[in-house]
Amino acid sequence: MNKQQLLTSAAPHYTQDQLLELEHAIDVATNAHEGQKRKSGEAYIIHPLSVAATLVEWELDIDTVLAGVLHDTVEDTDLTLETIESLFGQDVAFLVDGVTKVSRARSGMRSLDSYLPATKDNLTKLMIAVGRDVRVLIIKLADRLHNMRTLEHMPPEKRKKIARETMEVFAPLADRLNMGRVRVQLEELSFRYMMPKDFARTKTLMDANLKRSQRKLTQVEREVKTKLTEEKIEFKMDGRIKSAYSLFKKLDRVQGDITRVHDLIALRIIVDDLSTCYLVLGVLHELYTPLFDRIKDYVAQPKRNGYQSLHTTVQTSSGQIVEFQVRTQEMHDYAERGLAASFHYNESKLTDAYKKGTLAELPENLSWIRELQTAAAQAGSDQEFDAENFRMNLFNDRIFVYSPKGDIWDLPRGAYVLDFAFRIHSDVAARASGFKVNGVMKPFSYKLEHGDTVEILTSNTASPKPEWKDYIVTNHAKEKLRLQLSRQKRALFSNMSARLKRRKH
Ligand code: MN
To answer: Do residues 429 and 464 make contact, with C-beta atoms less than 8 angstroms apart?
Structure first.
């Protein structure tokens, strides 16, 4: 991918002015990454340009594409967010900042592996909290897709780790965004690197059976086409081939017997409107015998991620079992590109919601984002749910600070060094005698800044003090301090009474 290729692929989708901006962004990013190389030995700029090309392919708005071009500059080069804002505006800077934060959060969460049992969920939660503009997550998906496509250049031990993370975090994320095609691409690539032997075996089995299935399907396809044309129904028809990963999972459920997998190829019929979908279903059931337990009406009852389609499995007169998927063009776009497609359909609506920073204004089919954020916040907090606090924790800016080992912790903006100490461990906080921030001693009254590296100095003679209350803001720290102080008081009291008792005797 080079500058010219990206501009050419973008040309049909954007205005002349927008294309000039894109060219400008490419030049700025190329300059910034000058001299940097990828693991493959290629110039680094190929990566952001590939990410941007994917975003163009997904038909995202120009700001997202510009942010794709610039997505690694703040993290990896001297370019600052301020410069990006002055050159490309607030929205692009906001998106680049979001992507940078998600990267930092991710690398931090990875090093938390040993502390947190539910890392996957925490990571997903953190990504959503940090990337609160969905477009940030879409850029991350495009980024991950390119990294997976070039994974062979990574050292073998890293490949499996990255592939696993992709399978556990990014593919489900794509699924939640209903970006079906991306989910499948990510799963296929992960599968290949995580379980190379199973991947190869499944592929071989699939190729052998595909030829046979395809031959048989030709007849069915012809019959359906003739019938639909007779009925004067306008349609497009194609075959969708099951992914190797999805086949691998299915084979497990049918004891490895591929002849029991009926949707190795499904025939997909795309029509103009919803009522025609049902009409086509009727025609199919007139032609063939429906296997009644296998009709799935995802139009009346869309999947949780918004997927809509009618699925039916039928048996032909020659005994062949075929799966059909019937949907409108809009449903099809949404099934393939999910949220990215809804930018196409609802762009102004979405952009407004983002500008106002209110997820409440998201279109109905995106309400899961809100649900997910609520669920994530509830699962992630050990306090009782409190709506005001939830809002503050999730939507107000979080800051990320680092331990000297490079572990990352997210805290609310305005948190003090003691909040950090209590997050690490309340016993560590209890023995805190001082703090070094970025290598310099700081008082207990120091408020943390995004990106600070904090070292906690401890001493065995140190103990929690009531005046610490003035230097903490998080509920977690307040609660822990309260417990420690009351325990201290009790200990003091029982010491005193023990002494008094001794004196009496
Ligand atoms: Mn990247």
So the answer is: yes
What's the 330 CA to ligand 1 centre distance in angstroms?
31
- Return d(Cα 392, Cα 217) in angstroms, integer: 56
How far is ligand 1, taken at its centre, from the CA of residue 62, in Å? 18
Give the residue numbers annotated as catalytic, written as ranges: 75-76
* Spatial CB neighbours of 332, under 8 Å, sequence gap ≥ 6: 268, 270
Sequence-ordered list of residues with C-beta below 8 angstroms from that of 275, at least 6 positions apart, any chain: none
- Domains of the chain, residue spans: 196-335, 398-504
Say if strands 440-442 and 432-437 run parallel, antiparallel, or are unpaired: antiparallel
> Rounded CA gap, 176 and 190, in Å?
18
The end-to-end CA distance of the chain, in Å, is: 89
pLDDT-derived band at 364, boundaries 50, 70, 90:
very low
- Please write the tens of the pLDDT for every residue from 25-78: 999 999 999 999 998 899 999 999 999 999 998 888 889 999 999 999 998 999
Distance CA 322, CA 262 (A): 6
pTM value > 0.85: no
Ligand 1 centre to CA of 74 (Å) is 11
CA distance 357 to 231: 49
- Architecture of 196-335 per CATH? 2-Layer Sandwich (3.30)
Interval between CA 72 and ligand 1 midpoint (Å): 5
* 338 burial via Cβ count (<10 Å: 0-12, 13-18, 19+): buried
Backbone angles phi, psi at 270, to 5 degrees: -110, 125
Question: How many Cβ atoms from other residues are within 10 Å of residue 1's Cβ?
Answer: 18
Ligand 1 centroid distance, CA of 504 (Å): 73
Mark out the alpha helices in 231-264 (DSSP H runs): 244-253
CB contact set of 391 (below 8 Å; sequence gap of 6+): none
Domain 398-504 grouped into CATH 3.30.230.10: no
Contacts of 224 (CB under 8 A, 6+ apart): 237, 267, 269, 283, 284, 287
